[in-house]
Write a structure and sequence with these properties.
Structural class: alpha/beta
Helix content: 40-55%
Number of helices: 10
Shape: elongated
Strand content: 15-25%
Strand order of the largest sheet: 7-5-6-4-1-2-3-8
Radius of gyration: 25 Å
């Protein structure tokens, strides 16, 4: 482990002000580690000067590399592209907004040197995040860990260290959703956490949808790693069928005994609305699985790199 290479993978979009600070802090960390390195920026085309800023730093440091995509494919695809093109013995995935401190990489590397294959950064606090987002994240992790086949540690993101063995197995998995924390949990191996306090974004505003972002991530975790929703539909169908049978039996018994049930139009409307909602819910769940099957069958690439700077095509 004395002569090892560290690959830092940074998915980036509209981060021109944060990139110089990130590079400066990363270099200080790497200087302390005294290892070979490469910093790979995986860039979705964006309207600001993020690309120009990265290439300016590359003039003085050829270890800074850039993958530019043909269009915007999103952060998960950018992360998987960085893993596919990196050449390090270990890799660290980190965002460019500096909410995850680069200085923590030294602790991740120390835990790797102790014999761990994956070292994930686990948030002890989440500065700058709203109460609603924290609640959605908490509920999401709880649901995923209860109904899926994998266990994802709570309060974790993509900020983690992986060794070459783990990276090679990840590259064999064809998953267009690119839910990294789920995929890493799926491949297994020896994993350990390092606790830290997450900072607020350094500058600018995030490209993360504050309302649907966490919900989409949670849905990817549930649909991608669990068949429980399909089992839920089957059980729900049985329960509703049994309820309908009991309701019909009750109506028949009341008629035999001479009682006239008072159902009325409001009851009828509520029953129709309820069953229509259940049907749409079931179709939506099935549709999520079918959509992923459809994407898998098409076998389209998860990303297309248009320009390579410092990496081999």
């Amino acid at each position: 482990m004395k002569n090892y290479k560290l690959s830092v993978i940074v998915p980036v979009f509209n981060e021109e002000k944060n990139v110089p600070v990130l590079i400066e802090r990363l270099k200080k960390v790497i200087q302390n580690l005294k290892c070979d390195y490469e910093i790979i920026f995986a860039l979705d085309p964006c309207p600001d000067k993020t690309e120009e800023v990265i290439l300016e730093h590359r003039i003085n440091d050829k270890n800074i590399k850039l993958l530019k995509f043909s269009r915007r494919f999103g952060q998960p695809a950018a992360t998987m592209a960085g893993l596919a093109y990196c050449s390090g013995d270990i890799s660290v995935v980190i965002d460019a907004d500096l909410q995850d401190p680069p200085e923590l990489i030294e602790s991740l590397v120390e835990k790797w040197k102790e014999g761990n294959d994956v070292v994930f950064a686990q948030r002890r606090s989440r500065e700058g995040e709203t109460f609603i987002k924290k609640m959605v994240a908490y509920i999401g992790y709880w649901v995923i860990n209860r109904i899926t086949d994998i266990k994802i540690p709570k309060n974790t993101g993509d900020f983690r260290l992986m060794n070459r063995k783990v990276m090679d197995h990840l590259k064999k998995i064809h998953d267009n959703e690119g839910f990294l924390r789920g995929l890493v949990a799926y491949v297994g191996f020896k994993q350990i956490a390092v606790l830290y306090d997450r900072d607020a974004r350094l500058t600018g505003t995030g490209n993360y949808n504050r309302w649907l972002g966490s919900l989409t991530i949670g849905l990817n975790g549930i649909i991608g790693f669990s068949k429980y929703p399909l089992h839920f539909i089957s059980v729900l169908g049985l329960i509703i069928s049994f309820g309908s049978f009991v309701l019909g039996l009750t109506y028949f018994t009341m008629k035999i005994l001479g009682y006239e049930p008072i159902w009325g139009n409001p009851t009828l409307v509520m029953l129709i609305s309820f069953f229509s909602g259940v049907q749409l819910l079931c179709l939506g769940i099935i549709g999520q699985y079918m959509a992923r099957m459809y994407d898998a069958i098409k076998a389209r690439p998860a990303y297309i790199v248009s320009d390579f700077y410092g990496t081999e095509e």
